[in-house]
Amino acid sequence: MKTRIGILGLGGVGGYFGGLLAKAYHNSDTVEIVFIARGETKKAIAENGLKIITDESETIVHPALVSNVPEEIGKLDYLICATKTYDIEESLTSLENCIKKSTIILPLYNGVDAQERIQNLFPENEVLQGCVYIISMIFSPGTIRKLGFYEKLFFGSKTAPLAKLEELHLILLAAKIESHLTKNVNETVWEKFIFISALATATSYLNQNIGEVLTNLESKVVYIELLHEIEDVANAKGLKLPEDIVAQTIVKLEKSPREATSSMHRDFMAGKNTEVISLTQFVVNEGKKYGVKTPLYEKIAAVLIK
What we know:
It catalyses: (R)-pantoate + NADP(+) = 2-dehydropantoate + NADPH + H(+). The protein is an alpha/beta fold. The chain has 2 domains: about 5-185, 3-Layer(aba) Sandwich (Rossmann fold), CATH 3.40.50; about 185-305, Orthogonal Bundle (N-(1-d-carboxylethyl)-l-norvaline Dehydrogenase, domain 2), CATH 1.10.1040.10. About 45% of the residues lie in helices and about 25% in strands. It contains 13 helices and 11 strands. The chain is globular. The mean pLDDT is about 95.
């Protein structure tokens, strides 16, 4: 029996990491990769494969199947989810018939509440925690563009069987994905959230890319103040984060391509639905829950949520 892995959401994250999996396990006797897609993305991949463009290369990969029809997809052993956070409930509910009791779900979203939301939908399943560091985006339907060299995937669970976690870890490593199976996954996910929340909030509010945020003194002050506010929230929640988490996060941003920006900022510029509730308003809500003031987050949320 093959291990069947579904990739839900073929944007910058799902498309890139799902593409590496499809490339590694094309015609494999042990692992089968299924892309779950619809519309123009499904059509483009079915006809021409998924193209991944990096700074050094272009690669076209083909999954075992690309579909959004549960009867065609069948039962899955693992489901890697990488849609937008506002699509969590709708997208997963549509795949209810593909998820058996033993299916392990790995969320790779920008927010930190995905595991709880998915667990509410599927209380009998093991829902892991996970996050990625990567700058990648949809260039066109069926084509993913990745910027820079930085790419890491972290995941873990306090309840899932270790054997299943290690199986997934080895599958990812064999696909040349820099995968890290971590014990303190909640803190790891929050470290990523601090990075992406402040970045998405600042770039969207200021309408600037990473280079502009870093080089404009007033913009950088806004970004750093957001980092301090979300750090205060994380500390109030009792998370054990590095004492220099703000400095570490700034270094991460300085290592990012200057011309890049956040996916939320790109969605705002394109007039699309955005993840502002999960990335900006969530911090305000958590601050109120734990008695932490987040005046800058509140100010920006009021502007971005219209």
